[in-house]
Design a protein that fits this description.
This protein is α/β, with parallel strands linked by helices. Helix content is 47%, strand content 15%. It is built from ten helices and eight strands. The structure holds flavin-adenine dinucleotide.
């Protein structure tokens, strides 16, 4: 059942899914799943997996970049250690003319993620990160990262957060999403607008038209297995669409977030389980 959202456990399955997306005119971001590793050996193993995926993308001439989580690279163990691994991955990204996107995790990691990305970004442009519209702090973070010329993926946010740090009502998150998108699009840098929400997509298309921003100067991003109809429609309309393709053994937390963000998915899961 997780297969709806996860390409498979092995890299070959993920590369196959990426090829299919490319054949449909879509770009890809490959994510080797993993988070909150408990040992430096596990973090180094994740680093090796990311190095390998950049090699394969180059070898197979895929239109794909890579997404990673800092807690998969040992952020819980030591920021310095984690940063060293990120450096080596970004070096490989730059050497293969590619790009590493650092996903944003729960709010306990926001500050450390942004600071680490800024430090690495000051040495190589081949890294960017993610901003979550549900956090109150995000507008400040957007301004901060733009000052570094950092490419940003804007999403709503997928973790359970308290009202101390995040908007609770969907309407407030959506309003902030539109506000942040309106800061990103005219900024002159290439950003990713990650959402399946037709209202956010409509607002982005209007903002681009009003500011005469070309369809090639930003991209929509969506998750593997979610609103494939919409992904293909946007491609037909001439927009750039990137599909986030997760793979690997450690799929359970990712799968649970996909169930949690949409109650209908739990019904789908239960029906299929009993079938
Ligand atoms: C490319 C990409 C990368 C992301 N990276 C991060 C990240 O680094 N950190 C982070 O916190 N979050 C990340 N997210 C998740 C994001 O924060 C949201 O939780 C998720 O995208 C749902 O929000 P939405 O914008 O689609 O809007 P919503 O209002 O939640 O959903 C709009 C519509 O989209 C469809 N939809 C949304 N989610 C699902 C689902 N799981 N299953 C089926 N249909 C669905 C439904 O039709 C729904 O009505 C990412 C999302 C994308 C697309």
């Amino acid at each position: 059942m997780a297969r709806r959202f996860v390409a498979g456990e092995g890299l070959d399955e993920a590369l196959g899914a990426a090829r299919v997306c490319n054949d449909h005119g879509m770009l890809v971001s490959l994510d080797y799943l993993g988070e909150n590793v408990a040992s430096t050996a596990d973090a180094q193993h994740a680093r090796d997996a990311y190095l390998e995926v950049f090699e394969k993308i180059a070898e197979q001439r895929l239109h794909a970049n890579v997404s990673c989580k800092l807690t998969a690279l040992g952020m819980d163990l030591s920021t310095e250690f984690c940063e060293g691994l990120v450096h080596s991955i970004v070096e490989r990204a730059a050497a293969t003319d590619n790009f590493l996107r650092v996903d944003m995790e729960g709010s306990a990691y926001t500050e450390r993620t942004i600071e680490l990305v800024k430090r690495v970004r000051s040495q190589s442009p081949a890294i960017g990160t993610v901003i979550q519209a549900y956090l109150y702090r995000s507008e400040q973070d957007v301004q901060d990262l733009l000052a570094y010329g950092c490419r940003i993926r804007l999403c709503k946010g997928a973790y359970k957060e308290s009202a101390d740090v995040a908007f609770e009502k969907k309407a407030d998150v959506d309003a902030n999403y539109v506000r942040l998108m309106q800061l990103l699009l005219p900024s002159g840098f290439y950003h990713g607008i990650a959402t399946h929400d037709p209202r956010m997509i409509g607002a982005t298309i209007r903002c681009a038209a009003e500011n005469k921003i070309s369809k090639d100067d930003f991209e929509f991003q969506m998750l593997y297995g979610v609103r494939v109809d919409l992904q293909r429609r946007l491609v037909r309309d001439g927009y750039r669409v990137r599909v986030y393709i997760p793979y690997g053994n450690d799929w359970f937390p990712y799968f649970m977030r996909r169930l949690a963000e949409r109650p209908a998915n739990v019904g789908f899961f239960i029906r299929n389980f009993f079938r």
